């Protein structure tokens, strides 16, 4: 426990122990059997089992279903480039090759999206499967395939599935992956054939992790158990439009080319709710305190007069537990998801043509979520339309991010709000809506369990969506004794919680992938982007004709006045329903802006004159503004930007919060010599968080302790780190209480999900409070020999003391041995069998650590959660720089490698270079590909 908590640590009793260990771990009963047989078993695994699954990359293979020969050329990193003579052959070969390298990963993904993890991993996954079946990704994907996709797209998906199945044909599970050999010790699981719907369903998992502000919606409501509206508003400050630029500054939002500026939100609040209270609904419902009582230290709180806020806390806490435990698809369950992407026009580049950079920030996984690949028609024609290269998802045809022969594109998460939580009044076999009881839509689901008994569940849906609260027995019973206001219906057996989410409607995103892959110009690209309904992404664009652009696609809901989606809404009242969707021709875009570049890094997309509310929870622009400043500093005086300049920008590790805090920290008089020695590290520091920097290590520890003292210890237990316990004053007290009335509360969240996480929202929180030296936030009680704090500088001093002794414990007393990289380490773990279990299997499957530069909300965004520690929890999952003048001079790198096979030479062969910020050559033309080819595999009909 950090030394400044007010009481002893310990594990929280009860529920947290039950929850601990389920999150993304896919616990398997058979793991201990992986080492049965001792050394003989180990020898068998290392020689026979491991090598049996390695793909054939040379010679020839007959592939039933091909219409003509296909060549698969792999370079020294095992990255494949596929050459075919028809679209169907191209995508069939893509399925075959991806299955060669990544089928186990693909198989786990499809079981996750279908809510069938228990079939592979046993009873530990039943609760996850129940929740995933309730979300209904597979049902939606099936409907999407049946009703929304064109015949051509279905043909491509079928060809891809045929390629995967051609790889599986005749193979035992142990011939596919070493992980199947482990599973085979205790069950008879055998991989089944791939289907087109398996590919479509993966889009739902992608959308889930990029779903927008759902987590903020939950957190704001949970905060109200100890914080009043003004305090919650302090922790969700407004977007700093005067300091950090929005994405679209000279753009347009309709066909009439009506322009808007980049000044602020519609009502000037953006970053709060419609009434400026940031997280308070307009009528005080949905768990929001309306009387403003409660002290700013969080140790004495007021009484909420909302619709049963105490019961809502219990419901939302239970819901968060379910969300937290879901396996991660591409992100950290919606937290910390970001990305950088920017494009610079030819007027500002050395080549005279655009340069485009992209590095999506996602969970660190092994193998990487991305798979590098080139898909080339030998001759582009009506029969064979594709010549595209970039980053794909194993399990899905096409290229997600990359370039073709004419254009390039990148993506960052837009963060637009496409999810709402609704409280539902449940009654009998239905739910209340505008004074009438409506029947549920129901689905009966059977969950098969490896080594166990199948379980049946019933999924219930209201007109707002599936009832997430059905997945926890406690949630439908809470609130029987809760006080409710007169505007809300009686709770009876408790309110339910339903999810309204655009991705649960059948859509056309799969169509968009193929359309973008063959787009030849801006008009083609915009038309393709309009099909990219979910998840809504910032798309940056460049082409060989020297144009650059940006467009925001997506199915984005509109809401009635008074409901902004920032907190759960009453589902029983039709005025809180979505009113429609923003028309595609009204969504913001830019094309060849006068400034000559476009930056997207999760900041606000639009300003105050845009007619729709896209979200109340933008990123706060620390990364985007730093990138903008780097570009501006380079082009000032007619400077020109190179590919290497773009790479260096991607690796920029400057800390924006350090620039604000260090000058003040250096002014503080520190008496303790050891603390003073640490303080001196900050003198002359350039704010760069290099892996070997002692100053970066000390500053980030000070920052972590400032956040904990000022905010973390004042947040409710539902947001704090599991196992960290505090003595706090009871909720609903109106003033200080005796020590014997304090209660012990222990945090309930995993360390990488807790608050304050230290991201750029917290930068803005601290910045907004800096001039208020006597704010109640800057107070903290004495703890042991650590002094109390009554103002800002007292608290900063305390944080400096705590940081000094924290690092002494972690890194040693001699500050000359300190470095940021020793704290800030990346471990790559196989997301199933390598996460828990016997050391032997973890040794086989996992890799690391790597000591990293960078940090939270820096351009080199190696994210860490300040509430939980310094370890890396999300990363630039890949990096690319595309040169539109000569595609063969483009650069790319992946987090891990092409292969998902442990002990393949391509398992993590890119990670060392990735950690150093290096990029690989990215060959595109046939001449360049041939020159870099190490292995060629011929696929024959």
Features:
8-stranded antiparallel sheet; alpha+beta; 11-stranded mixed sheet
Structural write-up:
Strands 1-33-2-3-6-7-8-9-17-18-22 form an eleven-stranded mixed sheet, with helices on both faces. Strands 4, 5, 23, 28, 29, 30, 31 and 32 form an eight-stranded antiparallel sheet that branches. Helices cover 29% and strands 18% of the residues. The longest helix is centred in the first third of the chain and has 27 residues, at 87-113. Helix 3 crosses helix 9 (196-209), helix 6 packs across helix 9 (196-209) and helix 13 (509-517) runs antiparallel to helix 14.
Q: What does the secondary structure layout of this molecule look like, with pairings?
A:
Elements: H1 15-19, H2 38-52, E1 59-62, E2 70-74, E3 80-84, H3 87-113, H4 117-121, H5 126-135, H6 137-147, H7 151-168, H8 178-183, H9 196-209, H10 214-223, H11 229-235, H12 309-325, E4 338-344, E5 355-363, E6 371-377, E7 387-392, E8 401-404, E9 407-413, E10 419-427, E11 430-433, E12 436-439, E13 441-447, E14 455-462, E15 465-466, E16 495-501, H13 509-517, H14 522-529, E17 537-543, E18 548-551, E19 557-559, E20 569-570, E21 578-581, E22 589-591, E23 597-600, H15 622-635, H16 643-650, H17 656-667, H18 673-680, H19 694-710, E24 725-728, E25 743-746, H20 760-769, H21 792-811, H22 820-823, E26 825-828, H23 839-845, E27 847-851, E28 863-864, E29 872-876, E30 878-883, E31 890-894, H24 911-916, E32 920-922, H25 926-932, E33 935-940
Parallel strand pairs: 1-33, 3-6, 10-20
Antiparallel strand pairs: 2-3, 2-33, 4-5, 4-23, 5-29, 5-30, 6-7, 7-8, 8-9, 9-17, 10-11, 10-16, 11-12, 13-14, 14-15, 17-18, 18-22, 19-21, 24-25, 26-27, 28-29, 30-31, 31-32
